[in-house]
Design brief:
Elements (H helix, E strand, L loop, with lengths): L1 E9 L6 H13 L8 E4 L3 E6 L4 H12 L6 E9 L14 H11 L6 E4 L3 H18 L4 H12 L5 H8 L3 H11 L1 H14 L4
Parallel strand pairs: 4-5
Antiparallel strand pairs: 1-3, 1-4, 2-3
Helix pairs in contact: 1-2, 2-5, 4-8, 5-7, 6-7
Length: 199
C-alpha cells in the first residue's frame, strides 16, 4: 500500500511563481526524488508518493511550508491503496491509491485537506477530525506556519531549543504553537497512524 498526495497551490496566480515554487520543490524534495516520488505539473499542481504512515504528516508539513507566504495555502487530497503500475514518473503510475487520490481531490470544495481509502468508516472518522483541524490550520499566519514547520522538522527539540533556533522567546514559541493547535494536530496524526491497521 502507498499514499498518493494530489495537491495544488491556492492563490498561486496572485504570487510570482519564484516566491512559492522553490519552497514547494524544497519541501517535496525531502520525501524523495523527482519525478519518481514527486512531480509538479500544470504549473501549480503536484503529486507525491509516501508510505501511508507518513501521509498526514507530509500533507500538514507541506501546508506549513506554503503558508509561510502570506495569503497562500494548499489543497491536498490523500489517497491510500495499492499501486498497480509503477512508472518512471509518478504522474504516469497507476492503481487504486491514485484513483482514490484523484476522486478525493475532485471532491475538495471548500476543504483544503481530506483523505480517501477503500474503507468508508475509516474515511468518515478521519475526515471529520481533519475538517476540525483545518478550521485552525487554514488560519495559520506566516509566523505560526514557520514555527510549526520548524517544530515538525525538529521533533526532539523542546520549546526553549526551538526558540533559540528561530531567534524568538520561549513565550513566543509557546503562544504560536498554542494558537496553531500543534499538540492537537500531533495527536490527530498519532491517531491516524494507530487506525491504519484497519486498512
Amino acid at each position: 500500500m502507498v499514499a498518493i498526495l494530489t495537491g495544488d497551490i491556492k492563490n498561486s496566480s496572485e504570487h510570482n511563481a519564484t516566491e512559492w515554487l522553490p519552497q514547494l520543490k524544497e519541501v517535496l524534495g525531502k520525501f524523495g526524488k523527482e519525478p519518481k516520488t514527486w512531480e509538479i505539473y500544470r504549473g501549480d499542481s503536484f503529486q507525491l508518493e509516501t508510505p501511508p504512515e507518513n501521509a498526514l504528516d507530509a500533507a500538514i508539513y507541506i501546508k506549513a511550508s506554503i503558508k509561510q507566504l502570506r495569503l497562500m495555502d494548499v489543497r491536498i487530497a490523500i489517497g491510500i491503496g495499492q499501486k498497480t503500475y509503477d512508472a518512471e514518473k509518478i504522474t504516469q503510475s497507476n492503481g487504486p491509491a491514485f484513483v482514490n487520490s484523484g476522486k478525493c481531490f475532485e471532491n475538495l470544495k471548500k476543504q483544503t485537506l481530506a483523505l480517501k481509502t477503500n474503507n468508508k468508516k475509516f474515511d468518515e472518522t478521519l475526515n471529520l477530525l481533519i475538517q476540525l483541524a483545518t478550521l485552525t490550520m487554514d488560519n495559520w499566519t506566516p509566523a505560526i506556519s514557520k514555527t510549526v514547520k520548524t517544530a515538525m522538522e525538529n521533533p526532539k527539540l523542546n520549546q526553549k531549543e526551538l526558540a533559540a533556533l528561530l531567534d524568538k522567546s520561549q513565550g513566543n514559541i509557546s503562544e504560536e504553537l498554542g494558537k496553531a493547535g500543534f499538540d492537537e494536530v500531533q495527536k490527530m496524526i498519532h491517531f491516524y497512524k494507530t487506525q491504519l491497521s484497519q486498512l
